Amino acid sequence: MYIDIKMSKKGEIVIPAFVRKQFKLREGGSVRLDVERDSVRFVTPNKNVVAWMREYAKKHSRSTDQIISGDELYEEEFG
After folding, report:
1. CA-based radius of gyration for the chain
2. For the residues of 38-51, what is the DSSP string, one character each?
3. Distance CA 57, CA 16 (A)
4. How far, in Å, CA of 12 to CA of 35, rounded?
5. Is 61 left (phi over 0), alpha (psi -120 to 50) or beta?
6. CA separation (Å) from 48 to 45, 51, 53?
7. Burial class of residue 57, CB neighbours in 10 A (0-12, 13-18, 19+)
8. Which of 10, 15, 17, 34 could bond to 41 as cystine, CB 3.0-4.6 Å?
């Protein structure tokens, strides 16, 4: 899919809302630019696993120890 977007005088672009939602991009977050010879791609950066675990634990009212040691929690999330 291609989406044409305009760039401001400062070189800023707006990522459409449906794209931000799909890739869970939030204000203050970061995106990675993959610059090649004749193209530029936006790539979602690798998630910080520790930050993800803390967020998951808080969201599910569990300790990070439970997530680290609990295979069933991994299966529940990714299975």
Report:
1. 17
2. TEEEEEPPPP-HHH
3. 30
4. 17
5. left
6. 9, 5, 9
7. middle
8. 34
> How far is 56 from 35, CA to CA, in rounded Å?
32
C-beta of residue 51 within 8 angstroms of C-beta of residue 45: no
Are 13 and 5 spatial neighbours (Cβ–Cβ below 8 Å)? yes
In single-letter form, the type of residue at position 32 comes to R
pLDDT per residue as tens digits for the range 8-63: 999 999 999 998 888 888 888 888 888 998 998 888 776 666 676 777 777 777 66
Q: Which residue has the tokens 């634990």?
A: 57
Residue boundaries of the structural domains of the chain: 14-45, 49-78
Can you read off the two tokens belonging to residue 10? Answer: 């400062």
